[in-house]
């Protein structure tokens, strides 16, 4: 992407070396460097990226973004032909430059936030918009104060659509990301209990997610509204430009545009088929709740002038990301639904609702839900009382917090409850293998730091 010296100057960045106005791909890990890249040295909690500038140059980086303090000591030994971007603070610098670059882009920008389903909804939106024009979207989980700037800086400069994901675990974070990404359209998937501990309660979660709609109200942007979520509806009341989408009834008093959809079928993993304006698409995403995400993507595309007959087929190409609802074949008809990337109570309820109608014996491995703070015991006990647990033949609870859920399920006389406060992935895999029979359906769900992804890898390789 071409940028200019004025943009760097406004971002507080000076150039050392012979630079040609070209902004190459930006990387923050020296191990990801390809020839010609820009390595941005960030100070982390464990390591300082400045320690790897030499490695990045050796790997082929053309530019390194560094602090003034580092440059004062090392600029004299800069390898021939290499360039430095120098700034007071490299974290502020990447955010400031992303803000400048975003203002220079002439594309429609869509921001997605919410308690559950942000990433796959983002993927669905990007797939739909990709049929309408060149589209750049966030990769992996690049949705925070570093990841969102990287998405913007790695844009091509000639895209028609930019899709940003915004995550948060405290108030004012989404507002901050909006000031960088400056979205024209915004969508809140839902408002539930994720990060309740960090936020300090569910009302604070609503305020935090609502910061996206508050920004749109301030800038005359457009909200794409989930009409089935009362908290989202409350936040949308402040926005003048808006359109809604729903698989159900239209709320009383809603007068803006509505994009209705219909859930027409579910397969054995509850992968939904969705009908929009007479066109039908079957999604690859396990769980009936993804029908709503598909409709959200359709609503964004239609609001931007797309025709369902053109963009809906693209939704069928979106596959679950690793750990986010991918079905793994284990042999002898055994299938594992890998949802080990993260968890909160609402997404766990949805995952259990997906497992409950699955064929054969049903087994669930459920790990701790983190970031619940003062609510963690109450919420884990609520997990043990989720009605869908009655449909699951074997329940395996992993982690000290899930012991509360195991107690509740046992009190409710579930016939096969097993709890492990601590267990190695290999040992857990052995226990699960012993419980499997041909045709068993398995769910694995837990917060990322529970480490159930390592259990999935162990089970899948044998």
Describe the protein in words:
This protein has 462 residues and is an alpha/beta fold. Helix content is 35%, strand content 21%. The protein folds into 3 domains: 5-88, MurE/MurF, N-terminal domain (Udp-n-acetylmuramoylalanyl-d-glutamate--2,6- Diaminopimelate Ligase, Chain: A, domain 1); 105-315, Mur-like, catalytic domain (UDP-N-acetylmuramoyl-L-alanine:D-glutamate ligase, 3-Layer(aba) Sandwich); 326-460, Protein-Tyrosine Phosphatase, Chain A, CATH 3.90.190.20. Strands 7-8-6-9-10-11-12 form a 7-stranded parallel sheet, sandwiched between helices. The protein has a 6-stranded mixed sheet with strand order 16-17-21-18-19-20, with helices on both faces. A 5-stranded mixed sheet has the order 1-5-4-3-2. Helix 4 (90-104) packs across helix 6 (147-153), helix 14 crosses helix 15 (402-411) and helix 16 (425-435) crosses helix 17.
Number of helical segments? 17
Topology, number of strands: 21
* Order of neighbouring strands in the sheet with most strands: 7-8-6-9-10-11-12
Q: What class would the helix/strand composition place it in?
A: alpha/beta
Average pLDDT for all residues = 94
The helix content, as a percent range, equals: 25-40%
For the largest beta-sheet, the strand count, sense and barrel status come to: 7 strands, parallel
The rounded distance between the terminal residues' Cα atoms is 46 Å
Low-pLDDT stretches: none
Q: Examine the coordinates and then state which fold CATH places here, giving the name of the CATH topology of the largest domain.
A: UDP-N-acetylmuramoyl-L-alanine:D-glutamate ligase
Q: What is the general shape?
A: globular
Q: Which value, in Å, is the CA radius of gyration?
A: 24 Å
Assigned CATH superfamily of the largest domain? Mur-like, catalytic domain
Number of domains: 3
CATH class designation of the largest domain: Alpha Beta
Percent strand equals 15-25%
CATH architecture of the largest domain: 3-Layer(aba) Sandwich
